[in-house]
Design goal:
Elements: H1 8-11, H2 23-33, H3 43-46, H4 48-61, H5 65-69, H6 73-81, H7 87-101
């Protein structure tokens, strides 16, 4: 996560549609978008267009399209979270979303 200073855990808590966390991820994304999210992490929760842009960059960088196209929720979850905490909840939300959108 790259949290090296007191308070980093809270300061770099999950924000945006992908729930970006950790000083390291905020630093890396700052370089990609040329905007200082490290100094002002709230930009990610206050600007919906920025949150969408960051989500698209993250999605692309983590190569999530292929498992999403295969409907492989387990692999999508792993690529976004690096684990499976909350996986059953995600499956339920996905089931509900499919009822609405498909």
């Amino acid at each position: 996560m790259g949290n090296t200073h007191d308070g980093d855990g809270y300061k770099y808590r999950g924000r945006g549609f992908i729930q970006v966390t950790g000083r390291y991820n905020y630093t890396q994304l700052s370089k990609v978008i040329n905007l200082d999210l490290v100094t002002n992490p709230d930009l990610l929760s206050n600007d919906v267009h920025l949150a969408l842009k960051i989500s698209a960059i993250f999605w692309s960088h983590k190569h999530i399209n292929n498992p999403a196209d295969r409907d492989d929720a387990r692999e999508v979850t792993y690529r976004i979270n690096g684990g499976y905490i909350g996986y059953q909840d995600r499956l339920e939300f996905l089931r509900r979303a499919k009822k609405v959108f498909l």
